[in-house]
Protein backbone atom coordinates (compact mmCIF):
# COMPACT_ATOMS: atom_id res chain seq x y z
CA UNK A 1 0.00 0.00 0.00
CA UNK A 2 2.81 2.36 0.92
CA UNK A 3 4.62 1.57 -2.37
CA UNK A 4 1.54 2.48 -4.41
CA UNK A 5 1.23 5.78 -2.53
CA UNK A 6 4.91 6.54 -3.21
CA UNK A 7 4.44 5.79 -6.90
CA UNK A 8 1.46 8.19 -7.05
CA UNK A 9 3.52 10.82 -5.23
CA UNK A 10 6.38 10.49 -7.74
CA UNK A 11 3.96 10.73 -10.66
CA UNK A 12 2.25 13.78 -9.16
CA UNK A 13 5.58 15.58 -8.59
CA UNK A 14 6.73 14.75 -12.12
CA UNK A 15 3.53 16.14 -13.62
CA UNK A 16 3.75 19.26 -11.48
CA UNK A 17 7.35 19.97 -12.52
CA UNK A 18 6.54 19.34 -16.19
CA UNK A 19 3.58 21.71 -15.97
CA UNK A 20 5.74 24.44 -14.42
CA UNK A 21 8.30 24.12 -17.22
CA UNK A 22 5.55 24.35 -19.83
CA UNK A 23 4.16 27.52 -18.20
CA UNK A 24 7.66 29.03 -18.08
CA UNK A 25 8.24 28.29 -21.79
CA UNK A 26 4.89 29.82 -22.71
CA UNK A 27 5.62 32.89 -20.61
CA UNK A 28 9.05 33.23 -22.26
CA UNK A 29 7.51 32.88 -25.74
CA UNK A 30 4.77 35.42 -25.00
CA UNK A 31 7.27 37.89 -23.58
CA UNK A 32 9.58 37.41 -26.57
CA UNK A 33 6.74 38.00 -29.00
CA UNK A 34 5.78 41.26 -27.25
CA UNK A 35 9.38 42.50 -27.11
CA UNK A 36 10.10 41.72 -30.77
CA UNK A 37 6.88 43.44 -31.82
CA UNK A 38 7.69 46.48 -29.68
CA UNK A 39 11.22 46.60 -31.11
CA UNK A 40 9.84 46.46 -34.64
CA UNK A 41 7.36 49.27 -33.96
CA UNK A 42 10.07 51.38 -32.35
CA UNK A 43 12.43 50.90 -35.29
CA UNK A 44 9.71 51.38 -37.89
CA UNK A 45 7.59 54.18 -36.42
CA UNK A 46 9.44 55.57 -33.41
CA UNK A 47 12.64 57.46 -33.10
CA UNK A 48 15.40 55.12 -34.17
CA UNK A 49 17.65 56.02 -31.22
CA UNK A 50 15.06 54.46 -28.90
CA UNK A 51 16.00 50.95 -30.06
CA UNK A 52 19.11 51.28 -27.88
CA UNK A 53 16.83 50.96 -24.83
CA UNK A 54 16.32 47.29 -25.79
CA UNK A 55 20.01 46.44 -25.29
CA UNK A 56 21.38 44.54 -22.31
CA UNK A 57 22.37 47.17 -19.70
CA UNK A 58 26.10 46.40 -19.93
CA UNK A 59 25.94 46.64 -23.73
CA UNK A 60 23.90 49.85 -23.62
CA UNK A 61 26.57 51.55 -21.48
CA UNK A 62 29.17 50.96 -24.18
CA UNK A 63 26.93 51.66 -27.17
CA UNK A 64 27.52 54.78 -29.19
CA UNK A 65 24.39 56.13 -30.84
CA UNK A 66 25.07 56.88 -34.48
CA UNK A 67 25.49 60.65 -34.99
CA UNK A 68 23.10 60.99 -37.91
CA UNK A 69 20.46 58.64 -36.45
CA UNK A 70 17.80 61.38 -36.55
CA UNK A 71 18.36 61.71 -40.29
CA UNK A 72 17.35 58.08 -40.89
CA UNK A 73 13.84 56.78 -41.39
CA UNK A 74 13.03 53.08 -41.68
CA UNK A 75 10.77 52.40 -44.67
CA UNK A 76 10.55 48.61 -44.51
CA UNK A 77 11.06 46.07 -41.71
CA UNK A 78 10.62 42.40 -42.59
CA UNK A 79 11.52 39.35 -40.53
CA UNK A 80 13.30 37.02 -42.96
CA UNK A 81 14.29 34.35 -40.44
CA UNK A 82 11.87 33.73 -37.61
CA UNK A 83 13.21 33.64 -34.04
CA UNK A 84 15.03 30.39 -33.37
CA UNK A 85 16.79 29.14 -30.28
CA UNK A 86 20.57 28.93 -30.30
CA UNK A 87 20.89 27.70 -26.71
CA UNK A 88 19.82 24.48 -25.08
CA UNK A 89 17.58 26.21 -22.55
CA UNK A 90 15.87 28.46 -25.16
CA UNK A 91 17.21 31.56 -23.39
CA UNK A 92 19.10 32.88 -26.43
CA UNK A 93 17.40 33.31 -29.77
CA UNK A 94 18.41 34.69 -33.16
CA UNK A 95 16.25 36.54 -35.65
CA UNK A 96 17.18 38.02 -39.02
CA UNK A 97 15.45 41.15 -40.26
CA UNK A 98 15.65 42.87 -43.64
CA UNK A 99 15.52 46.64 -43.18
CA UNK A 100 15.22 49.34 -45.82
CA UNK A 101 15.76 52.94 -44.78
CA UNK A 102 16.33 56.38 -46.21
CA UNK A 103 18.48 59.33 -45.32
CA UNK A 104 15.86 62.04 -44.97
CA UNK A 105 18.03 64.93 -46.21
CA UNK A 106 19.17 63.04 -49.32
CA UNK A 107 16.22 60.74 -50.04
CA UNK A 108 18.67 57.93 -50.69
CA UNK A 109 17.42 54.43 -49.89
CA UNK A 110 19.69 51.79 -48.41
CA UNK A 111 19.08 48.29 -47.10
CA UNK A 112 20.65 45.92 -44.62
CA UNK A 113 20.13 42.63 -42.81
CA UNK A 114 20.02 42.95 -39.04
CA UNK A 115 21.09 39.71 -37.33
CA UNK A 116 19.49 40.12 -33.92
CA UNK A 117 20.43 38.11 -30.84
CA UNK A 118 18.07 38.21 -27.87
CA UNK A 119 18.81 36.87 -24.38
CA UNK A 120 16.32 36.04 -21.64
CA UNK A 121 16.96 37.14 -18.05
CA UNK A 122 15.15 34.64 -15.84
CA UNK A 123 15.34 36.82 -12.70
CA UNK A 124 13.81 39.86 -14.41
CA UNK A 125 11.66 37.77 -16.78
CA UNK A 126 12.61 39.90 -19.77
CA UNK A 127 14.28 39.65 -23.14
CA UNK A 128 17.06 42.07 -24.14
CA UNK A 129 19.03 42.46 -27.31
CA UNK A 130 22.48 41.00 -26.64
CA UNK A 131 24.37 42.10 -29.74
CA UNK A 132 25.11 45.65 -30.91
CA UNK A 133 22.68 47.70 -32.98
CA UNK A 134 24.09 47.77 -36.53
CA UNK A 135 25.28 51.01 -38.09
CA UNK A 136 22.84 52.35 -40.66
What does this structure look like?
The chain has 136 residues and is α+β, with helices and mostly antiparallel strands. It has a single domain (2-129), classed as Nuclear Transport Factor 2, Chain: A. The chain is 37% helix and 32% strand. It has 2 helices and 4 strands; from the N terminus they run ααββββ. The chain has helices spanning 2-45, 57-62; strands spanning 72-85, 92-103, 108-121, 126-129. The protein has a 4-stranded antiparallel β-sheet. The mean pLDDT is 88.
Which secondary structure elements does this structure contain, and how are they paired or packed?
Elements lengths: L1 H44 L11 H6 L9 E14 L6 E12 L4 E14 L4 E4 L7
Antiparallel strand pairs: 1-2, 2-3, 3-4
What is the alpha-carbon Rg in Å? 21 Å
What form results from the Cα inertia axes? elongated
Number of helices: 2
Beta percentage is 25-35%
Query: How are the strands ordered across the major sheet?
Result: 1-2-3-4
Look at the structure and give the mean pLDDT: 88
Strand segment tally: 4
CATH class label: Alpha Beta
Poorly predicted ranges (pLDDT <50, ≥5 residues)?
A: none
Which fold name is given in CATH as the topology? Nuclear Transport Factor 2, Chain: A
Instruction: Supply the number of structural domains.
Output: 1
The sequence of SSEs as H and E is HHEEEE
Distance between the termini: 70 Å
Task: List the keywords.
alpha+beta; single chain; 2 helices; four-stranded antiparallel beta sheet; 136 residues; 4 strands; Nuclear Transport Factor 2, Chain: A
Amino acid sequence: MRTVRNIYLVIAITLLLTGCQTIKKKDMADTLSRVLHSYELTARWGKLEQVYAFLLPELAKEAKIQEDINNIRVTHYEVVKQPSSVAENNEVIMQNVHIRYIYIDRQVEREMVDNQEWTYNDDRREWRRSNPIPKF
